[in-house]
Amino acid sequence: MKSKLSRNLYAIPYALWILIFVVAPIVLVLYYSFFDIEGNLSLTNYINFFTPVYLKMTLSSFWYAFLITAFTLLISYPTAFLLTKTKNKQLWLLLIIVPSWINLLLKAYAFLGIFGTYGTANSLLEVLGIGSKQILFTDFSFIFVSVYIFIPFMILPIFNALDEMSPTLLDAANDLGASAWTTFRRVIFPLTLDGVRSGCQVVFIPALSLFMLTRLISGNRVITLGTAIEQQFLVTQDWGMGSTIAVFLIIIMFVFVALTGSRKRGM
Amino acid sequence: MYNFESFTLDWYRELFSDTRLLIIVLNTVVVALLSALISTIIGVLGAIAIKSVKGRRSKNTLLSLNSVLIVSPDVIIGASFLILFTMAGVKLGFYSVLLSHIAFSVPIVVLMVLPKLMEMSPTLLDAAYDLGASRWNVLTKVIIPYITPGIFAGFFMALTYSLDDFAVTFFVTGNGFSTLSVEIYSLARRGVSLNINALSTLIFIATIFLVIGYYFITKQYSKSGMGGKK
Amino acid sequence: MSDQVIIRFEGVTKQYDQDIPVLNDVSFEIERGKFYTLLGPSGCGKTTILRLIAGFTEATQGEIYFNGNVINNVPANKRQVNTVFQDYALFPHLNVFENVAFGLRIKKTKKEEVAKKVHEALAFVNLEGYENREIREMSGGQRQRVAIARAIINEPEVILLDEPLSALDLKLRTEMQYELRELQQRLGITFIFVTHDQEEALAMSDEIFVINRGKIQQSGTPTDIYDEPINRFVADFIGESNIVKGKMLADHLVEFVGKQFDCVDQGLNPDEPVEVVIRPEDLEITTRERGKLQVRVDSQLFRGVHYEISSYDKDGNEWLVHSTKKATVGDEIGLYFDSEAIHVMRFGETEEEFDKRLEAYGDGVGNEE
Questions:
Q1: C318-323 and C69-70 as β-strands: parallel, antiparallel, unpaired?
Q2: All structural domains of chain B
Q3: C5-227 topology per CATH
Q4: Angle, helices A139-164/A52-85, rounded to nearest 10 degrees
Q5: CA geometry: angle at C114 spanning C108 and C119, to 5°?
Q6: Which residues of chain C have pLDDT under 50?
Q7: What phi, psi does A24 have (nearest 5°)?
Q8: Residue A178 falls within a domain, yes or no?
């Protein structure tokens, strides 16, 4: 079997990559989650996770992620729908996608300027006579910026689903006597559900694990699971607890993907 | 932004006279190019390996393993790599950053190359063997030229991912080594400064150029028919 | 074994996993310089035979000989055969010249020789002047020729063609049939051609292997196979046939549809149940009284050269008639045929038995004609 072995030599770097950077990290995170801060093997971290402090944090992280996903969807679906109706839809789509190419940090940073005490937003409020307000470091600013950042990721799959839909389907629905609303409810929406699902997946999971935005925009007011992990690893240096939260984040991720998993219908 | 008086290039001048910052820019570029190059090589080999796997089930397992690092949140990748490097005794700094950038770019390259490999008709390989080609000939004269557009796309994607990454680098970098995004983050945490504004503009322009470059390369390939578009 | 034999299969079986074998204990010989066709429905195993010869797949059992040597373990790139693929498999990143030159480049042939040989090969398939074209600029028929040029440039002893005409439209297909046949005769090498199109097989081949369910059903010249099909499958697959159940009463006497008919078949057991084949073009429309069979016309289609008339006898057997004369739907008509038009098939007869039986009464038939 020597020839077979030497035939597959080329696959070694990739196999090593899987072992070292895919399998090993997962195993290590799991392994570390069973060590408390003193380095003793214990379940302390798991017990701690179910104390009110961490449960409250998890719930609030969920709540924010839910809000962000909901608002993003609310804005993206109609936008995607309108996009498919425009003449130069590819160009418009490109314009909406362009911001997602720009470094997340730069976008966050731009909002620091806009929402700052002397920023554009406050100048505008000033002009309107409302007076300057504290915008930065509020829930509003956090959700606003997150939604802004995630919109392209939500629009893209929905746009694709809408765009793939054969226009004759709408004609057929019309032909069979469906009203515009019925057509949307019974034909368009079910057919774009896969797009909505994958859109929600690419927004919800990252929203749970945001940590740089929470620091920059919401000034530590919002603690997501991601922020907690970063805190445990880089500030408190409690890798065990950090790993435990990571384990839960991974579990939540799998559950969420399984729940929203697109069941491909035979078409 | 605070006291806007007139346009000036002072901030750019300050930027370029700041050697520390120049070193950081250099770090970022070196890490991006090296990681993109190495991950492209590993990724292409990986895609060929995945393609050659016969069983449906093992193929799907490989594909799932491949996408783990794409769907995982950055924080988890960063944290787990931090554990990995500490356990393995890799000093946090250039090498840990480079290795992690290679690590998260590999699956992207695989995903860019694999569709090209899949669309390649299996008779093409049969034809090459039939005409006397050895396995090496088939690889260098048929497979690689055929998937070149995918390889370029993968390389550019890896480059952008590396330049764009903040979270993973933030976790695995150590004293004395920093990339642009980490630097901006620490500056931004201290508040708005015009220095960063200038830096941001530069990065923004660089990104635009990358995107345009990527666009033209893919377009040119599809035009010359190398893409095998039907 | 004669020198004429270039490829020999001995008890070759090909099986994937635990499925039914794609090829089941197949043995045959291929001779030098002839045009062979492997004919059969899709999934019958004909392409598998081709892939076994080319070396793209390995036999589960049995030996494959090439020029007298077992080549089971010789890899594809070391075999003296070249293939023209169904989808042509032209390299899209290379132009016409480089596609044709591929095999020579692998062999590191000198530059001038490559240029000379490519030019010759392209001239052979009437594609001079197309050297610098890209593959995507070529039409289906031209790609076909490039693929052939690429296959012949290595001067193989055998060329394998895997349904190469299936992607072409009808007119071009007919043209290419002539061209391929003529090309084979000019080159004087063995062509093994795979198709599911019986007309193609009849038109081009020296020898046809009719294959079904992993077995060679019958092999022979086109006329042999058309005139004397061995069983129902072959009779049905090649041309159109009227097949009815009958009984062999004695030599030269067969009974079907409740009547007795003279025929040329002999050597069967008395009262042996058989199947009787009569080709639609051997049936002649006549009056009810003069016909050997009485049928009622059910429907009629105009096919250009002839009318295709479907009729039924009183037992409910369908009789297809190809006639230049028109019939009237609903009419009771008579069908007349010669005794040679009747072909009797035994159930489960092997090819050797069949050939032996045909040879035995070869004289009798020959004299009558």
A1: unpaired
A2: 15-223 (1.10.3720.10)
A3: Rossmann fold (3.40.50)
A4: 40
A5: 160
A6: 1, 364-369
A7: -55, -50
A8: yes
Residue B95's φ and ψ, nearest 5 degrees, are -70, -40
Q: What is the DSSP letter of C167?
A: T
> What pLDDT, on a 0 to 100 scale, did the predictor assign at position C364?
47
Q: Mutating which of B42, B63, B83, B114 best tests the A interface, going by the most A Cβ atoms within 10 A?
A: B83
Torsion of CA A257, A259, A261, A262, to 10 degrees: -150
Q: Of B76, B110, B203, which is closest to A103 when you measure between CB atoms?
A: B203
Give residue B115's pLDDT band: very low, low, confident or very high (50, 70, 90).
very high
Other C-beta atoms closer than 10 Å to the C-beta of C92 total 19
Residue A69 within a domain = yes
For chain C, which chains pass the contact test of at least 3 CB pairs under 8 Å?
B
**B226 pLDDT band (50/70/90 cuts)?**
very low
Query: In this structure, what DSSP letter does residue C78 have?
Result: G
Kindly list the strands in the beta sheet with C23-31, ordered across the sheet, starting from the edge strand earlier in the chain: C23-31, C5-14, C61-66, C69-70
Which residues is C159 bridged to in the sheet? C82, C191
Count how many residues are written for chain B.
230
pLDDT band at A194 (very low <50, low <70, confident <90, very high): confident
Q: What is the pLDDT at residue B1? A: 44
pLDDT band at A147, cuts 50/70/90? very high
Give the fold, CATH level 3, of C241-368: OB fold (Dihydrolipoamide Acetyltransferase, E2P) (2.40.50)
Cα A132 to Cα A128: distance, rounded to the nearest angstrom: 10
Q: What is the CATH number of the domain that holds A59?
A: 1.10.3720.10
What is the pTM assigned to this prediction? 0.79
The beta-carbon neighbor of C89 closest among B127, B141, B226 is: B127
* C83·B133 Cβ contact <8 A: no
Nearest to B200 by CA among A96, A118, A110, A95: A110
